[in-house]
Design a protein that fits this description.
23% of the residues lie in helices and 28% in strands. It is α+β, with helices and mostly antiparallel strands. β3 and β4 form a beta hairpin.
């Protein structure tokens, strides 16, 4: 999938830990029970889509 197919542009979020220099970052967008994950340097590129509960489990695991 491509980003425009997953979520509107204004719904994508980048971590507050990302630098302002445009380094390697990912952006996420939650829509209809799923989360899209994309490369911030290629906003029209491919998107990984996972169920929202899978994303929540992943985030909880890496932030412990």
């Amino acid at each position: 999938m491509r980003a425009p197919e997953v979520a509107p542009e204004n719904t994508w979020k980048k971590s507050s830990y990302s630098d302002s220099q445009g380094g390697s970052c990912v952006e996420t967008a939650a829509q209809a029970g799923q989360v899209g994950i994309r490369d911030s340097k290629d906003r029209n590129g491919p998107v990984v889509v996972v169920p929202a509960n899978t994303w929540s489990t992943f985030v909880a695991f890496i932030t412990r």
